[in-house]
Amino acid sequence: MQIYKVGGAVRDRLLGIPVTDIDWVVVGATTEEMLAKGFRPVGADFPVFLHPKSGEEYALARTERKSGRGYGGFTFHASPEVTLEEDLIRRDLTINAMAEDDQQNLTDPYHGQQDLKDRLLRHVSPAFAEDPLRVLRVARFAARYAGLGFTVAPQTLELMRQLADSGELQALTAERSWKEISRALMEDQPQIFIEVLRECGALKVLMPEVDALFGVPQPEAHHPEIDTGVHTLSVLQQSALHKLPLTVRWACLLHDLGKGLTPTEEWPRHIAHEHTGLKLIKAVNERFKVPKDCQELALLVGQYHTHGHRALELKPSTLLELLQSFDVYRRPQRFEEFIAACEMDARGRKGLEQRSYPQADYLRGAAAAARGVAVQPLLEQGFKGPELGEAIKRERLKAIKAYKEHA
Q1: Do residues 124 and 93 lie in contact, with contact meaning Cβ atoms separated by under 8 Å?
Q2: Which of 137, 159, 160, 367 is deepest in the core (most CB within 10 A)?
Q3: What is the DSSP letter of 104?
Q4: Which residues have C-beta within 8 Å of that of residue 330, sequence separation ≥ 6?
């Protein structure tokens, strides 16, 4: 039995960046031997075990072959005869197909170390094209390592293009796709993830609503970058620069989908794009079974982001409606995330990345004024039921009017 550290742990050590997860591969062992040593089995499809003390994953060396569609369409074979090189060749990228023993002796049969030096994301073998999930994974790695100068090798991009054209991407489950998308959006440069998907033709398969934004013009006075797709990527980039959570990044990606539906004769204006975009945001949310908090914020940002930009001009009654829509009294954090998304939208414009956004503090102040209305005095005045609700609304409106006059 020989045990090797494999994949990301080896890659990141060689890159000189912190190693977070460690995966191990075991060559020359049987399931029975692993169990005898106290390892706990966890793999449903193939033999993966948890170390009795560290809890880290140890997988028996295995080979695989394509047996059906999609990410799960593989037959695995694990046995003591499978070599380390045979195990490594089924991995996605050369930089993930290196192993090292306990003396840090490197096994690198597919030249991953050279590709690390050349800053290349390159597939290990033609078998890469058998797994559609790898399109998303490579785009995610491109987003993660873009800051270090990594790009996707042209031959790998060509295989990704073939996968996008083959119809295999449709065989991915919503859960697997969302896992990759959500991880990619939390990388340092999530806009690169979208760019790579677009370059290989996968974006128009997975998110045609986002793909449709490229080439759609906006008024140059408000959008010096003009192209809606370019603007969307800039907004996403800003959300990462400001270290915002997944909910906000997802909303930033989808906020302008309605502009993809504007008839060409109306370009570059996009009247009511906030409302036309809602059905598209809903469709994307449902396609990937997106978590509820991400779904809700994306819809609210889509519908109200122009309200955010015009906050200082809004009538007190409109401001109150906006606050009610977000349920700022019970869910203040969601309104904070909306404000953040609006600010990223304002900054995601060419040459305006450093602009101030006074609307943010103004909206926070309006929310605080509305929240400051005490319910107890109204109860003491005898209000109850629907009448109480109306009385609270009147007092909140008064508070917002007073705030607006002094702001």
Answers
A1: yes
A2: 160
A3: -
A4: none
Residue 101 domain-assigned (yes or no): yes
Give the separation between CA 110 and CA 350, rounded to whole angstroms: 41
61, 26 in Cβ contact below 8 A?
A: yes
What is the rounded CA–CA span in Å between residue 85 and residue 73? Answer: 22
The last residue of one of the domains, among 84, 112, 140, is: 112
Q: Which residues contact 159 (CB under 8 A, 6 or more apart)?
A: 123, 126, 128, 129
Q: Is residue 15 part of a domain?
A: yes
Q: What is the pTM of this model?
A: 0.93
Domain residue limits at 40: 1-112
Quick one: 22 exposed, middle or buried, by C-beta within 10 A (0-12, 13-18, 19+)? middle
Looking at 112, 143, 174, the residue that finishes a domain is: 112
**Quick check: 73 and 80 in contact, CB under 8 A?**
no
Number of separate domains in the chain: 2
Separation between Cα atoms, residue 304 and residue 74, nearest integer Å: 45
DSSP string, 268-325: T--TTHHHHTHHHHHHHHHHTT--HHHHHHHHHHHHHHHHHHTGGGS-HHHHHHHHHH
- At 185, list the tokens: 């959006």
In a domain, 22, yes or no: yes
State the Cα–Cα distance between residues 312 and 8, nearest whole angstrom.
49
Answer yes or no: is 71 within a domain.
Answer: yes
Q: Which residue has the tokens 């209000």?
A: 383
Segment-wise mean pLDDT, segments of 10 residues, the chain, 407 residues? 95 94 93 93 82 93 69 68 94 97 96 98 94 96 98 98 94 96 98 98 98 97 95 98 98 98 96 97 98 98 98 97 95 97 97 96 97 94 94 97 93
* CA nearest to 329, candidates 360, 284, 383, 367: 367
